[in-house]
What we know:
It is found in: Membrane. One of its GO terms (molecular function) is Delta24(24-1) sterol reductase activity. Residues 1-178 form the FAD-binding PCMH-type domain. The chain is α+β, with helices and mostly antiparallel strands. The chain has helices at 2-31, 83-91, 108-113, 121-124, 152-158, 192-202, 239-243, 245-256, 270-274, 284-291, 298-304, 310-320, 338-348, 396-412, 427-433, 436-445, 454-462, 471-484; strands at residues 37-39, 51-52, 56-58, 74-77, 95-97, 131-137, 143-147, 167-177, 181-189, 210-217, 220-229, 264-269, 326-334, 352-361, 382-391, 416-417, 491-492. A hairpin with a 2-residue loop joins strand 10 (210-217) and strand 11. It starts with a helix and ends with a strand.
Amino acid sequence: MAAPTKDAAKLMEEHKAAVARIQDRVKYFHDNKKQFRVYHGSTSSTRPMSFTRDQIVDTSDMNRIFPVDLETMTVKAEPKVPMDELAAHCLKHGVIPKIVMEFKGITVGGGYSGFSGESSMYRYGLFNNTISDIEIVLGDGTLETASRTHNQDLLEHAAGSLGTFGIVTLLTIELIKATPYVEVEMRRVDDVNKAHELFEAATKDENIHFIDGVYFGKGKIVVMFSRFVEKPSKPVLKKMEVHWFADTIEDKLVKEKPTNEKPSIVYMTTTDYLFRYDHGAFWGGKLAFTHFHVPQNRITRRLADPFLDSRTCYHALHKSGLANEYVVQDFGIPSSTVKQFVEFVNETLPELQIFLAPCKTAREIGLTSRFNPRVSEVADERIFAVGVYGRGPADPKAFYELNRRLELRSAELLGAKLLYARTYYTEDEFWMIYDKPIYEQMRKKYKAEGLPSVYDKLKADMGTGAGKRRPVRGIVETMWDKAIGNKNYLLKN
């Protein structure tokens, strides 16, 4: 027991020194009445971004993980800890976080500030709902804490706010027991309402741990129910089957024709399950082959494989400008309107696939105090995550209009989009959806008025390169950066 205690003590000593440095930097900007941006080092956002060294608070070294506490079933981590490192750290002890986002590079801080979720959110809510307390440097440099019993409103409102309440420096993450393997059952259905019914029934089955689905097109939907198992009853999926998981699913639909009565079953290691959509960033890898007119076969996929992890894909999106041509949006849509929204997306963007997963109700995950009062009309309905990923029009104006139609239709159906992606609302539209008076009241209470607002941040990101496409050069630069280990592609010299 002595060694872990010593390790934890040293980690805490280093942590306090890093926090003091951040406090000093924030206080400097506050005292000089200057706005600043928080530089994280990398991103899993598609918003165009650029940072200047003399206008940032650098948190890119905040990546310490503390020992797992099996008594409280929690683990403390700094905001830059990525999901793959967090999961590996916890799995050594037979546990995982209640929510593990599907991309390895998504960080603890990013998950908290960006309303992230995954296929266990029907049980636990969003990632921020599984954070029991935080430590945060406020806009004047003050160090504060928040939990479910102390500054509870700060814990709630700092979540999903894109860092506009301060800089979160430490988070306590709740854990659950895990086994080495996951069994995945796949069923094909032809209608969103049928998928919805199956989802709802599965939420009541205690033996199921994960629920999600993929909409491949009209009449072609796969619903997946997954559970922890100690040992697989047949071989686990191979590396390339995991890396091209969406294609693996689609292949099963064609060859095995799974039904609700006779599902297709595959096994994966728990780590592979957690990050099954990481490679190619869902199905972006397949789109990349199409974009560059490269044939897809066993050889070309093997050759491209080292460059298709989600970290590299996001790096390439920013370097190449292709984020201005590919739709990458996530929405939360109430159960009563989710079919209408999926049908609208299918008509508006035929070249797409959609990720579907049930969450908890808007009231349970804390959305009712954040959005337009009309959300109260559906506050007790289950929210569905609808991830829309596909190739849009190359024409910038048409691409802009397409994304606006998606955003505004989600609002009409009393849903909301997640703000990690590019935003196309006007300022008036934005504050009609998000509750500005509550937001400003909370910012004033916690001394965050000197920080950019959520809309300021989104608007600023829109002006840092939108419309500039350099696909071939951008991909080559990404490959070079990966080869030399350069991760600071967002930071100007």
